[in-house]
Design a protein that fits this description.
about 15% strand; 2 domains; alpha/beta; six-stranded parallel sheet; 13 helices; Rossmann fold; single chain; about 375 residues; binds beta-D-glucopyranose
Length: about 375
């Protein structure tokens, strides 16, 4: 009798266990993700709101992480390095479970990231590599050298350099020296254009081609405008025309264009080919009007998707998507990375890339 009772109790336990299992397997993956995320806190540190791209990056990251059930602390440091350090310290003491960081100065976060590591908080580098630290797990970015190569190739094609055309006068701008991306991009530009400088098809009248002389601290529009003004008054006031300006960022392109206008250049009349990066709305309008020739479209929606997968991997287990394990050595480790593909955009393909893809509405560009 006793034995029968015991069997009955065991059977009902087994039934309950099986039923509980069935209940779980019936849940949708998103709900399961949300359950796992269970309010875990993600600190997202962005550099500045002065450029449209970072506003979109922050917004995308926040929305996508919240949809999965994470709590997000999104902070902008307005290009103030110390403010970014304090924001990260606050995230750590505030109980963040993971940090996503787009650094202002990629070398300045070593100590605060060591603090994150000693608190077992995984760190993911967003768009800009975190240098000199072993506290970073993954890096989500675009092919930064590829951006420079695409800019160089655009100039090569549009100016008929392969066909031997020229000589053309060219001036170079690079990004912020404390941003690893700026160096990669510049290497890509010069990989394509240096042979034409050597052959004399491209002439840099100012002679300023070294990274240290062409870089622009914090990618500043104002700094770039001032440098362009100085170059125009110093080297082009005696009738030489400037034909090409390599700009690595739409904000820098605005500064360059303002300096050109100030020196009497007019769009449509010997106005130089000006490049850019980020497909900002203003740059896209300038492409339509001819003030800027091209930009590099980096779809921040795709970047955020890849980065969110990295967050999930470090917090919930599993492998994120990685497509590069050889390019990004931060001087302490080779950081496993996902490189999204940058797309050059000009008047020819702006409709397809920016409007048809839903990035902008047609009316935005009018
Ligand atoms: C990013 C670029 C951006 C630049 C200025 C770089 O790190 O890769 O997309 O234009 O910063 O914000």
């Amino acid at each position: 009798m006793k034995c029968k009772k015991l069997v009955a109790v065991l059977l009902s336990c087994l039934f309950l266990v099986v039923m509980a299992g069935c209940g779980n397997s019936g849940e949708k993956p998103a709900a399961d993700g949300a359950k796992k995320a269970g309010g875990k806190k993600i600190g997202v540190a962005m550099p500045t709101q002065s450029s449209q791209r970072w506003i979109q990056d922050g917004k995308n990251m926040k929305e996508k992480l919240e949809k999965l059930g994470y709590t997000v602390d999104l902070q902008y440091a307005e290009d103030d390095v110390q403010a970014q350090v304090s924001q990260l310290e606050n995230m750590i003491t505030g109980g963040a479970n993971c940090l996503v960081v787009a650094a202002i100065d990629s070398n300045a976060l070593v100590n605060v990231l060591a603090q994150a590591k000693s608190n077992n908080i995984p760190v993911i580098a967003y768009d800009r590599l975190l240098m000199d630290t072993d506290s970073v797990s993954y890096y989500a970015t675009f092919d930064n050298k590829g951006v420079g190569v695409a800019i160089g190739k655009y100039i090569e094609t549009k100016m008929g350099l392969k066909e031997g055309k020229g000589p053309y006068n060219i001036e170079f701008f690079a990004g912020s020296p404390d941003d690893n991306n700026a160096h990669f991009l510049n290497a890509g530009v010069f990989e394509v254009l240096k042979p034409y400088l050597d052959k004399g098809q491209l002439v840099c009248v100012s002679g300023q081609t070294k990274f240290d002389t062409i870089c622009t601290l914090r990618w500043s529009q104002e700094v770039a405008q001032k440098r362009m003004e100085d170059i125009l008054s110093g080297y082009y006031s005696t009738g030489k025309n400037l034909d090409i300006v390599v700009s690595p960022f739409d904000g820098i392109s605005y500064g360059v264009a303002a300096a050109l206008e100030g020196a009497g250049y007019k769009v449509g009349q010997k106005w130089p080919l000006i490049t850019g990066q980020d497909a900002e709305l203003m740059a896209s309008k300038n492409i339509m009007s001819g003030k800027q020739s091209m930009t590099i479209f980096k779809d921040t929606r795709v970047l955020a998707d890849k980065c969110v997968k990295m967050v999930q991997a470090v917090l919930e287990g599993g492998q994120p998507e990685i497509n590069d394990t050889t390019s990004y050595n931060n001087k302490k480790k080779m950081v496993p990375s996902y490189l999204c593909t940058p797309v050059p955009v000009d008047k020819e393909n702006i409709q397809k890339e920016l409007i048809d893809s839903g990035y902008y509405k047609k009316t935005d560009l009018q």
